[in-house]
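[job 0412] stage=fold_complex status=start
inputs:
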Amino acid sequence: MRALIAAAVGAAVAVVVALVAVPLADQNGPTTAKPLLTSAPAHP
Amino acid sequence: MRQRLALVLVALAAFLAVLGVMLRAWVYPHVVAVPDNQYQAVVLEAKDATLIDYSSMTAVPHQHVTIVETLKGDAAAAQAEKKRTGRDVVVWDALSYVLGNDGKRLSAIPEVYPFDAHTQDPVHCCGENVDGDALSRVGIEYKFPFDTQPHDYQYFDPQTRTSAPIHYKGTTTLDGLTVYYFEQTIPWTRVPFPKAMPAGVAITPDQIDKLGYQRWYTTVRKFWVDPVTGAPINGEELHDEQLRMPPSSGMAPVTIFSGDVRIRPDYQAATVALVKKERTLLLMLRDYLPFGLPLLGLVALALAFVVEGRARIRAARTPQGRAAASVADADEDGGAGDVPSAQGAPAAPL
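[job 0412] stage=fold_complex status=done
writing structure:
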């Protein structure tokens, strides 16, 4: 029984960590992927 | 004490397993986003191109054309849209600036391209336009979505102001990266004249229209795309434009521009280096941690079984051993042993 409670606590902490991480992440922070411009080249 | 350690390991195992799943299912799609304030430039070249000479209205071969493309994220517009709708948006102010042999401007076409920062779905706001013409894009432009899939996409063509499929043609390797190759063909289509005419040409697009001249265009657009970031790491365009006269004139079409446009090698190398760096971050969130953390959780769970099993074996050996273990645990735990003592020690708190 105590093992189940321990697992539930561990899982709950993981969910909280994940939920908190999203609003804390800045759109311009390090987890973003910079897009690249290599297209639509010629318009003379 | 050993039981406490086992419980901690069980909690850790659950934490790691659930965190791995949450990273993939919740954090990755919500956190990975295109920055709204980025500035980037790339230089492309068309060597040995053919270019119109407006003074003689003839096509001149062996020209060197340079295209400078810039993207500037309009952070203020993106934040205003987010405040209004709650959606993470990117608004790109793009400019294609084309230079001839002499370094003088041939054309400059500005664009405003708003899109969803996570999915890259088009967003219709913030003065979306191409060369001042308001429109509503369908599909993608410039960049492919994160986690690009090997299938066709709708790709917006700024010359025709319409979208058409860009076809997935296969997977290949480029500069050590596995990339998807996409190709789009735009058939000959009548398109508007750019509002910024070549330097030194006094005539305006409206005047050209009134004379009955038409600008027609066709292109084959090629992209080699890193599927993790959705960033093209190389691009090429086989681009042809013609000036077509009124049928009554009896004049043959004149080539405005014909050339094979490619990214300048130094910019292509810089692009590859940037993609390699960025894709590692994405892979950490998408693959490495979501699969690695549950594996660590399994290790923690196995350790928990080992610790618990050894404690039970030790306790079960002999009555004396059980008593000794009980006393030792009582000493370590401040009175609470992990197994019932043969001599009547307090029961374990499990």
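[job 0412] summary: Residues 1-25 of chain A form one domain.
[job 0412] exit 0
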